Amino acid sequence: MFCGTCGQSVDSIASFCNRCGAPSGRANSRPATLAVPAAATGARLGVTILVVLLAACILFLILFLYFLPHLGGASSSERTKAAEQRAHEQSLFVAMTPQQHLEVARAALSPGAPLAAIVDGIRNARAIPSTVPEAAEAVLLEPKLVRAEREASVKAAKQAEEDRLAGLPPLKRAMEQTKLTNFTWRKEGFGSVMMADFTIRNDSPFDVKDLVIRCTDAAPSGTVIDHNTRTVYEIVKAHSTRTFRNVSMGFIQSQAQRSGCDILGLGVVQ
C-alpha cells in the first residue's frame, strides 16, 4: 500500500508513513463495534427475573405440598383411627341393655365422680327407652345428674382458675386478687379537696402494702376533667378486707360531680 500524503510505499502492517509520518489509515480499518440496544438488555434482564420468580414459586409449591399433611395437627391416618374408635364406641353404646345404661347412670352419682363420668351418666340415662321398666328410675336420676354436672362444672372451673393463679408471680397474683370493693367520696376544704373512704379486699395468699389508688373525676356532662392519685401506705393482710377512711386525694376540680377509683399498683410484703 502507498501513503496517501506523499505517495511513499508503506508496509501493510505499519500505522504511519516512514517518510512523512502521516497515519497510514490502518487504525481506521478496524471494524466498528456494534452497540447492543438498551431495550434488548432490559428484555434479557426481565426474562432472568421471570425465570427466578417462577423457580421460587415452584419450590414454594413443592414445600407446601410436602408439609400440608402436617399443618392440620393429626395426620390422615390418625384421624381415621380416631374416627374408627368413635364408631366402635358408638356401636358398643347402642348394644348396651337398659339395665347396663341404668348402672352407668347410678355410678355417675357416686361421691367424687368426675365431670366426664357424670356427663356420660346423663347420656346413658337418656338412652333408656320410655317403654322399658328401667325408664321410671332413669327419669328420677336425670335431674340429679344434671344438678351434679352443674356443680362439677363450677368446681372444675374453680380448680382451673386456682391452678392458673398458682402459676403467677406473687406480685401479679396479688394485683389480680386485690380489689377495691367499696368507695365513697366528698368535697371538703371549701369544695376544693377530695376526701375518700376505700374498702380493699385482698383474696391473695400474700400480704399487700402501699396501694396506689387513682380516681377519675367527671363533670356533670360526663367529660373527664381530672385525675387524683394517692398512695395508701398501709398493709392489707392476705385473705382479708380493710377499710381506709378520710383519705385525702388532693385538690379536685370545682365542677367534678362523679368519680371512680381503681388500684393502679401495690407491693407485696416480703
Structural overview:
This protein is α+β, with helices and mostly antiparallel strands and 270 residues long. It has three domains: 28 residues; 72 residues; 97 residues, Immunoglobulin-like, CATH 2.60.40. The protein is built from six helices and six strands. It has a three-stranded antiparallel beta sheet with strand order 1-2-5. A three-stranded antiparallel beta sheet has the order 4-3-6. Strand 1 and strand 2 form a beta hairpin. The protein is flat. It starts with 37 loop residues before the first helix and ends with a strand.
Salient structural properties:
270 residues; 3-stranded antiparallel β-sheet; 6 strands; Immunoglobulin-like; 3 domains; alpha+beta; single chain
Low-confidence stretches: 27-34
What is the CATH top level name of the largest domain? Mainly Beta
| Strand residue content | 25-35%
Distance between the termini: 111 Å
- Radius of gyration, rounded? 45 Å
What's the total count of β strands? 6
Structural class: alpha+beta
The order of strands across the largest sheet is 1-2-5
Overall pLDDT level: 88
The tally of helices reads 6
At CATH level 3, the topology of the largest domain is: Immunoglobulin-like
CATH architecture of the largest domain: Sandwich
Give helix and strand order, one letter per element, not per position: HHHHHHEEEEEE
The description of the largest β-sheet is:
3 strands, antiparallel
- Basic shape: flat
Total number of distinct structural domains: 3
Helix content: 40-55%
